[in-house]
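Deviation from plan, reported transparently: magnesium ion complex.
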Amino acid sequence: MKRTNEKYAEQFPTFQILNEEGEVVNEEKMPKLSDDELKDLMTRMVYTRILDQRSIALNRQGRLGFYAPTAGQEASQLGSHFALEKDDYLLPGYRDVPQLIWHGLPLYKAFLWSRGHFVGGQMPEGVHAMVPQIIIGAQYVQTAGVALGMKKRGEKRVAVTYTGDGGTSQGDFYEGMNFAGAFDAPAIFIAQNNRFAISTPVEKQTKAETLAQKAVAAGIEGIQVDGMDVLAVYVATKEARERAINGEGPTLIETLTYRYGPHTMAGDDPTRYRTKDLDSEWEQKDPLVRFRKFLEDKGVWSEEEENEVIERAKEEIKAAIKEADGIPKQKVTELIGNMYETLPQNLQEQMEEYKAKESK
Ligand SMILES: Cc1ncc(C[n+]2csc(CCOP(=O)(O)OP(=O)(O)O)c2C)c(N)n1
Ligand SMILES: [Mg+2]
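Because the crystal trials were delayed, the predicted structure below was used instead.
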């Protein structure tokens, strides 16, 4: 059986462009990005690392609600998002708030979403995205539907979704990919393999040696990418997008990545399920260190520029949390009213009760 597994894994070698030292190891696949675009990518990653640090601090101060840390996953999240167009439809998971922000969700709304406020889930006009999905894998099925809709309307757009290594064990994961595959729907399925589903290591999650090979049974393209290499993730997603809009169907992209922090801020302790050695092994692969080295060698990035990004991020985060604080607290009647078009009997009664309470 081992031999069979190895045979499959061999068909999904890890795609890489920049090695851990920031050197180009795959000249042929080097994307044609301008210096400004390369700097934009770095800016997004640095900004997001700061946003993560500030979000953790705000959570500890009781000023945010649900928060799933993102440090370590910047290349996987933002390299893939960088390959998309504004009109593409994004279906994120709970850890994918950075992609939503770069897709156009204002920061103060991301903070409100964290607090469970309905305003955080209201996308501005022209921002094509769902709120982050909490039900593991459900967004894969929704993505198949969104993508098929695009195809039927003859639109040149794609639907892009994210789940984790744990998500690839869900029925929805297979249903979504199979359905999209059967219709050649323009979907991109990204599985961010950060090696753990809360405390469950990926080795216990599945017998398959790669997650990318799970594309085979759905008859779609699959690729495993070094998820700490922002250029490789960008190129893999860009190529998947090209195929999708050319009618060649969906792609499953497995990104090999790592979350440095805990699963969420709700209290898990990673030292109980991860070793220091594993943590430092992955910290050596850090996506920001690697890309910074590449950009500095090219002469297009400096410490000064990076500090400007850090300062701007801190200022904008401060302003956004203030803006979120200024939004009136969510009323129970709003919570109930936003859930249903027609209220069932029991909720009608509660609605009346809270209307009376809130008007006092
Ligand atoms: C259907 C479902 N089952 C269980 C949960 C509880 N749960 C929340 S996160 C999580 C682990 C997910 O791990 P993974 O898919 O690897 O994503 P990661 O958090 O590592 O990004 C589980 C089991 C859930 N939210 N939904
Ligand atoms: Mg995971």
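The longest strand covers residues 187-193. We consider this an acceptable substitute for the interim report.
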